[in-house]
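To the wet lab folks,

You asked to see what we're planning to order before we commit. Fair enough. Below is the target structure as C-alpha cells, and below that is the sequence we designed to fit it. If anything looks off to you, flag it before the synthesis order goes out.
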C-alpha cells in the first residue's frame, strides 16, 4: 500500500459506498479501525481508503482532487496554480465558532493575498447551505462581500475521509461524523508545509496562521529559522546548518552569538534578512 510520500501526484478519487444516506458511516470507519481491517467489508474498506486514512505529513505531496465549491467545481492544483495555499475545514455551517473563524479568515483575506496565498474552506455541508450561510459570516465581520474565498462542499465526505479530517466525537443530525478544524498550508511545490488539527469546540487563531505563513515563506528562501513568538521584521536565528565561515557572506547585517552555560555557539541571531 502506497503512502502520500510515494504518490507524487496522488489524486483523491474516493467514493464511499458504505456511506449511503441513513447508513452509519462512523460505525464503518471506527469499527474498521478497531479491527485493523479484519473481515471482508473492513478489508475492502481498508484496501480502498487505507492509503488516505491519515493526514498527510510535512513534506508529503498534497494530493490533488476535484471538488464542488461556492465558486463552481475546481481542480485543486489548477485552482492553486503556482501560489501557496491554505485548505481549512470546519465542522458545519450555521454554527457560532465556525462563523467567527470564517469571518476572521474573510477579514484577513487581503493579508493572505499580499503573501500570494490562496485560501479555501471546507465542510460536509452542501453548496446551497454554504451560500445561505455566507451572509451571516459577512454580517459577523461587517464586510460587504462578496465572500473573498471559496468554500468546498464535501457532502460525500470524500476529502474528509481522504485527508483524515473527521471528528468521531461530533455528528450531524443524520448521525454522520463532522469535519474537525483541520488546516493545511501547501507550498507552490504542492508539498505540505504545516498542518494543525483543532477540535470542534476550540476556534483557531488566524493571526497565528498568518504569522506562520510569514515564517514559512521566509525560511523557504533564507538560511534562517524564526524563534518563539517571532513576528515579521524581528530578529531571526541563523539556521543551524550554516557553518560559521559563511556567516559574513550570508548575513551582512551581522550575527550575534548568545553566551550560554553550555559554552556552545549554536544560538546565533541576525536581523531579518
Ligand atoms: C461551532 O462552530 O460553534 C460548533 C461546530 C460544531 C460543533 C459544535 C460547535
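Sequence we intend to order:
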Amino acid at each position: 500500500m502506497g503512502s502520500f510520500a510515494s504518490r507524487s501526484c496522488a489524486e483523491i478519487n474516493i467514493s464511499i459506498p458504505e456511506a449511503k444516506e441513513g447508513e452509519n458511516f462512523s460505525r464503518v470507519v471506527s469499527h474498521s479501525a478497531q479491527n485493523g481491517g479484519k473481515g471482508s467489508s473492513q478489508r475492502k474498506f481498508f484496501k480502498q481508503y487505507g492509503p488516505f486514512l491519515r493526514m498527510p505529513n510535512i513534506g508529503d505531496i498534497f494530493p490533488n482532487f476535484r471538488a464542488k465549491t461556492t465558486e463552481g467545481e475546481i481542480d485543486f492544483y489548477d485552482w492553486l496554480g503556482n501560489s501557496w495555499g491554505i485548505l481549512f475545514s470546519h465542522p458545519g455551517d450555521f454554527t457560532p465558532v465556525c462563523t467567527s473563524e470564517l469571518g476572521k479568515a474573510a477579514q484577513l483575506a487581503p493579508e493572505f493575498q499580499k503573501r500570494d496565498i490562496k485560501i479555501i474552506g471546507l465542510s460536509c455541508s452542501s453548496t446551497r447551505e454554504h451560500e445561505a450561510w455566507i451572509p451571516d459570516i459577512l454580517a459577523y465581520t461587517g464586510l460587504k462581500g462578496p465572500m473573498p474565498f471559496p468554500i468546498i462542499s464535501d457532502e460525500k465526505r470524500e476529502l474528509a475521509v481522504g485527508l483524515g479530517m473527521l471528528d468521531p466525537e461530533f455528528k450531524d443530525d443524520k448521525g454522520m461524523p463532522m469535519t474537525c478544524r483541520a488546516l493545511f498550508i501547501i507550498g507552490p511545490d504542492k508539498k505540505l508545509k504545516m498542518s494543525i488539527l483543532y477540535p470542534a469546540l476550540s476556534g483557531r487563531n488566524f493571526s497565528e496562521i498568518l504569522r506562520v505563513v510569514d515564517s514559512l515563506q521566509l525560511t523557504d528562501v533564507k538560511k534562517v529559522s524564526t524563534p518563539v513568538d517571532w513576528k515579521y521584521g524581528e530578529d531571526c536565528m541563523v539556521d543551524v546548518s550554516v557553518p560559521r565561515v559563511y556567516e559574513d557572506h550570508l548575513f551582512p547585517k551581522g550575527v550575534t552569538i548568545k553566551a550560554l552555560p553550555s559554552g556552545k555557539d549554536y544560538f546565533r541571531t541576525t536581523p531579518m534578512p
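Structural context that might help your review: Residues 206-221 form the longest helix (16 residues). Residues 180 and 200 are 6 Å apart (CA to CA).

Thanks,
Computational group
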